[in-house]
Amino acid sequence: MARLLLVEDDKTIVENLTEFLSSEGFEIVSASGQAKALELIAKEQFDLALLDVSLPDGNGFSVCKAIKTDSNTPVIFLTASGDEYSTVTGFELGAEDYISKPFRPRELVSRIKNILRLTGSVGSAIRLGEIVVDTVKGTASKDGRDLYLSALEYRLLLVFINNRGTVLSRAKLLESIWDIAGDFVNDNTLTVYIKRLREKIETDPQNPTIIKTVRGLGYKVDA
């Protein structure tokens, strides 16, 4: 699982990005300012850093410089500053990419995966029993065989993986996947996709051992 450092002082952006990126299979550690970010990079390892330029106690450029001084960790700048100076400065400090706010979350995920793939800086395999999910390639396999999951099936599997040990209600699942295809996903559609996912990942879909039904509450994948 790729471990990302998110340096951003806007709480709403942090909450929304953390939820979205977690559902895509990433582990998120956040810092609201330069001091906290520098503290984190001094003692922890990250596969990629997402940095805002404007911070309450400094700026993302200083954080990027500190990261690049001691590691090859890739950096993407997230900022409302679309001016040429900020862009050039970011690249001169070694940043791999630059995306202006507001941005589309799926575009950000695509850029993150591309950079991780190019830099080879992540151990991207997540295991769930016999299932192996590669969050960089966006694939899932069983016994070395590609399961060919659709975008919705893949997102649904990641939601379960990121909530192992927790009972997920149908409402929570709908909330997590409804916009992946750009369309509203209703309760009946969710039933169909859970059935399809089970047919691909379960040895015996009629008696599932991975995605278990918790009667009256929802579904659960064991921790």
| CATH architecture annotation name of the largest domain | 3-Layer(aba) Sandwich
What is the percentage of strand-forming residues? Answer: 15-25%
Mean of all residue-level pLDDT scores = 86
Estimated radius of gyration = 19 Å
CATH topology of the largest domain: Rossmann fold
What is the CATH class name of the largest domain?
Alpha Beta
Give the number of helices: 8
The chain-level structural class is alpha/beta
Describe the sheet with the most strands: 5 strands, parallel
Strand order of the largest sheet: 2-1-3-6-7
- The portion of residues assigned to helices is 40-55%
CATH superfamily of the largest domain: Response regulator
- In total, the number of domains comes to 2
Structural features, described:
Helix 2 packs parallel to helix 3 and helix 6 crosses helix 8 (187-201). 41% of the residues lie in helices and 21% in strands. It starts with a strand and ends with a strand. The protein has eight helices and 13 strands.
Essential attributes:
223 residues, alpha/beta, 21% strand, single chain, 2 domains, Arc Repressor Mutant, subunit A, 41% helix
What is this structure's SSE topology?
Layout: E1 3-7, H1 11-23, E2 27-31, H2 34-43, E3 48-51, E4 54-55, E5 58-59, H3 60-70, E6 75-79, H4 84-92, E7 97-100, H5 105-119, E8 125-128, E9 131-134, E10 139-142, E11 145-146, H6 151-161, H7 170-177, H8 187-201, E12 212-214, E13 218-220
